[in-house]
Write a structure and sequence with these properties.
single chain, 127 residues, alpha+beta, 4-stranded antiparallel β-sheet, extended
């Protein structure tokens, strides 16, 4: 279930970010003069509750690559915020290579798996 879910989720993350942007993350990227198309490639959310139902700790983050600058600076920009007061933008140099290779691998795998089915459907459609 992991790979199909991941394959479906990869194109959905940027759309979700465009529909519901995290304003603080957008402002932090602009403050650092990081312009370009934001492409959300990851997120994390953790919310632990105490015994009485109140939040004990909450942490959230989003990971972005910026297009087209990712090709000259293959970094991921991580914006995170926690109830402990920690908030900020962190640059992870060269981490974008991993995401780009995952995208290429998933597209290649999808094509190799789908190609025989597509060819069979085209042959049936010709008849």
């Amino acid at each position: 279930m992991g790979i199909p879910f991941f394959m479906l989720w990869l194109p959905v993350m940027p759309v979700y970010d465009w529909i519901k942007p995290w304003d603080e993350a957008v402002q932090a990227l602009k403050h650092e003069n990081k312009n370009g198309l934001r492409w959300m490639v990851g997120f994390d959310y953790d919310n632990n509750h105490g015994f009485h139902g109140g939040p004990l700790y909450c942490f959230k983050k989003r990971d972005y690559i910026l297009i087209p600058s990712v090709f000259s600076d293959p970094s991921i920009y991580e914006f995170s915020e926690g109830t402990d007061g920690g908030k900020g933008l962190k640059k992870r140099p060269y981490d974008a290579f991993g995401y780009l290779s995952i995208y290429v691998g998933i597209i290649t795998f999808s094509w190799l798996v789908s190609k025989p089915r597509i060819l069979r459907l085209l042959k049936k459609a010709e008849k």
